Amino acid sequence: MARLRRLGAGKVADAAKALGLSTTRRAALVAIVVCALAFTIAVPLRTYLSQRADVAAQEHEVAELEAEVERLENRRDELNDPAQVEAEARRRLRYVMPGETPYIVQFPDSRTGQAGGAGEQPGEPEPWYEKLWNSVRQR
Fold first, then answer.
1. Structure confidence by residue, pLDDT tens digits, 76-123
2. Are 129 and 118 in contact (CB under 8 A)?
């Protein structure tokens, strides 16, 4: 076995002598080859790592969107119930059924003496439908 190693080492030394390369030149040549390989691998490796980061970000976004879809599907299922739609209209739009008498209960607080409009509190935003009606009425 040692004899085979000596034969392999001897062939490399003979090849170096035939090409006229000294030990320093061989070391420099090996360093150049290693650097070339490193630069050849660096660009694809950087691309691979950046793509992995992009894939992770996209997977995170997909998970968020799937959660949003699930939330919206649950909301859609809730709104398929006519009683839920009626309750939503009464609460958000203050709708009343024909024949019902609507009451708005206002609790006393420090701002009631300052209210200037028809029971409207200052700082309370005007509903969109009142803004629309006022804009149409003014023209």
1. 999 899 999 999 888 888 888 899 998 888 888 766 455 445 555 567
2. no
* Cα angle: 30, vertex 35, 38; to 5 degrees: 125
116, 108 Cβ separation under 8 angstroms:
no
Compute φ and ψ for 37, nearest 5 degrees.
Answer: -65, -40
Lookup: tokens for 93: 């739009």
Q: What DSSP designation does 111 have?
A: T
Overall pTM surpassing 0.70 (yes/no): no
* Angle formed at CA 128 by CA 122 and CA 133, multiple of 5 degrees: 100
User: Position of tokens 């019902």?
Assistant: 100
| Count, residues in the chain | 139
The per-type count for the chain, helices as H runs and strands as E runs, is: 4, 0
